[in-house]
Amino acid sequence: MVSLRLETVGVKLGRRIVVRDASAAFAPGTLTGVVGPNGAGKSTLARAMLALVPHSGRILLDEADIASLSRAALARRVAYLPQGQTLHWPLDVERLVGLGRLPHLGPMSRIGAEDAAAIERAMERADVLGLRDRIATELSGGERARVLLARALAVQAPALIADEPLASLDPGHQLDVMELLRDEARAGALVIAVLHDLTMAARYCDRLVLVDTGTIVADGTPAEVLTPANLRTVYGIDARVELGGDWPAITTLGRSRA
Predict the structure, then answer these.
(1) Running DSSP on this structure, what letter comes out for residue 112?
(2) Residue 250 forms beta bridges with which residues?
(3) β-bridge partners, 59
(4) pLDDT tens profile 139-157
(5) Transmembrane region positions (predicted)?
(6) Which end of the chain has less neighbouring CB within 10 Å, N or C?
(7) How far apart are CA 71 and CA 225, in angstroms?
(8) Domain spans of the chain?
(9) φ, ψ for residue 91 (rounded to 5)?
(10) Spatial CB neighbours of 75, under 8 Å, sequence gap ≥ 6
(11) What are the start-end ranges of the E strands in the chain?
């Protein structure tokens, strides 16, 4: 199990400040959704947690500054599913998923029995066993998204950051992915998902972090974060918020005139 803590984190890309003074703590066993409008800084914040963009402030993984960790050490602890990744090499699906084992392999090492088992399990969980011999560059967008999720699962890291894991997926597979992420958290993993679908976020996430113009403006349970007032302020919409019962729903009524 791992813990992750952000202390007044800021990210500046070129002349633009994308993330401002972000502070939050993430615990194992929790599925946290990071939500907010387009351009709010959600993906940049996720990339900062993986030391993929320069940042100010501190990001601590098990109380160690991520800046002090090697890329391999960080990759073994935190798996990453980036959004909209383009595939350039015509690898078959099984080999592509197998790349998730690279952080565990030394120079010139070969895939062993433990690695093969991890790859098989990841493909099964992401529902891509039937694609194992297909060339990844020839897959549909939804198939490719599930294969890349399998690659992240193959790492078997105690933490997972998934950036828009529902993009390109049909409704059935969206449900499968959210249930999978929730199961990962229930098994003790620290799971962070950048999401646009507020109903999915409300239904599956234990906690939400609402980001607007690079700032964390709300952090708490879905009921605490997805209030009509917050949706009006951040998204500029009027919405019906129904979070009681087993089937929470956020229904957009229209642009707010307030």
Answers:
(1) -
(2) 241
(3) 6
(4) 988 899 899 999 999 999 9
(5) none
(6) C
(7) 34
(8) 4-222
(9) -85, 150
(10) 102, 103, 155, 157
(11) 4-13, 16-26, 30-35, 56-61, 64-65, 78-81, 159-163, 190-194, 207-212, 215-220, 237-242, 249-255
**Residue 256, number of CB atoms within 10 A of its CB:** 14
Mean of all residue pLDDT scores within the chain: 94
Q: Give burial (CB, 10 Å; 0-12/13-18/19+) of 128.
A: buried
Q: Name residue, tokens 């098989």.
A: 120
204 pLDDT band, cuts 50/70/90, is: very high
pLDDT tier at 231, thresholds 50, 70, 90: very high
- The contacts of residue 234 (CB under 8 Å, 6+ apart) are 36, 37, 40, 210, 212, 217
Residue 130 has pLDDT above 90, yes or no: yes
| CATH class of the domain at 4-222 | alpha beta
